[in-house]
Input
Amino acid sequence: MGQTIGVLATRQLAIGVVEDNVLCGPVRVFPEPGQHQEPRAMSADEIVERIGQQVLLSAKGGNVDCVGVGFPGVIRNGVVEESPNQQQVKGFAFAVALTGILAKGGLHVPVLILNDADAVAAGVAATRGHLEKLIRIWYLGDGIGFGRYPRAEGVWEGGHMVVSLDPKEHYCGCGGVGHLEGIMGYRSMRLRFLDMEPEEVFAAARDGDARCGAFVKHWHRALAAASATIIHLDGPGKFFITGPNAGFADLGLVAQYIHEMVKMTPLQGSLFETISTSHDLAVIGAAVNARRAAGVE
Output
């Protein structure tokens, strides 16, 4: 089996060489500590150029079969159709551009561009030995990501699922009303509670504050509603909750609300688990999906 290079391109670029679903050495991160230029501050051409440089450096001396890049947004056929938090890449033919840069550097391999949350889901599957199972993840950060392994046709932007008909739920970064991200996203919580940080909201709820307590229940009910909708479309199974805000989740409360929302017997039995996340998971997952897409598993 040859090597695959996996890349995560979000706030930082993380690049690693993967062989047999295991990292071959440390993941390299750009910008390095002390540097301040984030990908979201770059143009689309600058982002792909930087990724190409790092991939070519990582490929030196190796037998690389393919490259996978996890990137936030709606991505189909190698094109970033929409990325609410990185508008400069909207409509960008990412795969074609990166393939061309790599070819100029002497690396002629298939390139897969996929949603970053899908990369994390594949990384969870690979590192837990569950590549034959359905794995779904909720990534809780500034926005809300939904990842699925194995990848399936469709958009799968679960973070923008409509979970409320209240017109006041308008805090989602994409501008949509009633979205899950507009309730659970870190950015949206800061807009909602201008006088408190999200961490303070959850702490105050634990201390008995009525306003914060009501919101925390609303937050968990929103997560349960989105998960219940996915269960009704995609079947029951395990959901992993990860990301910097995963610690906010009370799994008992989520399970209670799911039980209220999913009543058909064949669809019951889903489980939730909170896990820590790292660049490693997404880098491995991007590589796993790239090999599957290239048919070199």
